[in-house]
Amino acid sequence: MRLFLSIDIDRSVLLKVEEIQKEIKQKVGFNWVPPENFHITLKFLDAFKKDQVEGLKILLGSIKLPSFKLSLEKLELFPTVSEPKVFIYSLGGDSERLEELHELIEKSCRTLGFAREKRKFHPHLTLARVKKLSEVKKVFSYLNKKCGLEFNVNSFCLMHSTLTPEGAQYSLIKEFKLHE
Fold first, then answer.
1. Total domain count for the chain?
2. Model pTM greater than 0.85?
3. Per residue of the chain (180 residues), what is the pLDDT tens digit?
4. For a tag on the chain, would you pick the N or C end, based on fewer CB atoms within 10 A?
5. What is the CATH number of the domain that holds 100?
6. Which phi and psi angles does 36 have, rounded to 5°?
7. Residues spanned by the domain of 116
């Protein structure tokens, strides 16, 4: 099973992001993420065994953390402008609380034998994947423009990802509420 843990974004914020994406999409030939798949990934769990899901749900359900606020800050090419893989919104807001949530998730996953991600945690909202470097210059005028759309993080989700010829399809396994 391909699973991941994520944060969903308020619908009102997503509608604004979708408008921005539509505007840029007309000009740039990237592989655009469908708006229904927008999320902030906390951890990806590839090759997860079905019989481990219940244990993971118990561990994740024991995470105690208050709700917090994040914001979409600015459009960026990641990891670098010269060798981008994705076109993203960087995040602002309560990054310390987000990092704490990420660490608690990592700890829960290590309990089940999953290795810690080797790459540094860089939370973001992916709008598109870069397929041709020749298209990158078309987004330069959008880079680093402030956005500042704020949203509440009241929960995180355990999701199942199924790869299809049309792209990834996501389904919710369980939502974990944070404490008000």
1. 1
2. yes
3. 899 999 999 999 999 999 999 999 999 999 999 999 999 999 998 877 888 899 999 999 999 999 999 999 999 999 999 999 999 999 999 999 999 999 999 999 999 888 888 889 999 999 999 999 999 999 999 998 888 899 999 999 999 999 888 888 999 999 999 986
4. C
5. 3.90.1140.10
6. -70, -10
7. 2-177
Listed in sequence order, the residues at least 6 apart from 100 whose beta carbon sits closer than 8 Å to its beta carbon are 65
- Residue pair 56/5 in contact by the 8 Å Cβ criterion: no
Backbone angles phi, psi at 95, to 5 degrees: -70, -25
What counts of helices (H) and strands (E) characterise the chain? 3, 9
Q: How far is CA 22 from the centre of its chain?
A: 19
Asked if the bond preceding 165 is cis, omega within 30° of 0, the reply is no
